[in-house]
Amino acid sequence: MESKKKIPAEAVDLYTRFIHGEVTRRDFLAGVQHFAIGGLTAAVIVEALMPNYALGQQVSKDDERITATYETLPSPDGNGFIRGYLVRPFSADSRSETSSQLPGVIVIHENRGLNPHTEDVARRFALENFMAFAPDALTSAGGYPSDDFTGGQLFGQIDRNKMTQDFVASARWLKSRPDCTGTIGATGFCFGGSMSNTLAVLLGADLAAAAPFYGGAPAAEDVSKIRAAVQIHHGALDTRLVDAYPAYEAALRSNNVTFEGHIHPNSVHGFFNDATPERYNKVEAELAWTQMIGWFNQHLRETAA
To answer: Does domain 66-302 bear CATH number 2.40.10.10?
Structure first.
């Protein structure tokens, strides 16, 4: 949906707080009423803020350039098993698992489960000649319910330690596949950005690179465990995380971790997500994608060569 009037920045911030669970759905809808002025109705504001996954799709599910399947793998230290979306570039001899080994990327969703946007990002990686696996943290709760609000409620009910181990199992599974080179990276958004940082700590040398987007940093005392090359992305207007970033940067530097940080101007939390157009910054999102692909090409291909 394209609104004729600009949605106030305060309304966008309210939506961000809502999806993080800081305000209830009732309070979000009530708060939106305060911005319904000058012909801009509350209904228009809500519609503009909610994700439009059709609008944000860049690579269709049936694109002939990719091969995609849903895979379920064991997670004995987590919730028993986890399901995810595995995507590779199409190959005429793709029936052979070892026909074309590729570096792998774990793509980690926000705090609402494996929604269509995250699956689309995984498909984009396949077009960059990576194999990507996007796990669904909601597997043990029945999977992403095709509704972000319900997904967020389910997300909050899952044991966080077991959830973390589900992602560890996913990364190790991808790394060990015969069609993977054995060199993997991780990226993710919001919760997924935080989890990318966590995987860098927990996997050590088993993770070659990470590119967290607007994710929380690991504890300073854990940064010494990181062996991955870390590329960090924040929106300049996402002040809470931007204010916290210098401490992470200092910890990375003092532990001699290879890293670079990008603070994207005129960008809010969620600026990469083109399914939420009021947060999406097309220029900075495309730049961040180019930076990330360059980072992964360097550290998942060139370093491993």
So the answer is: no
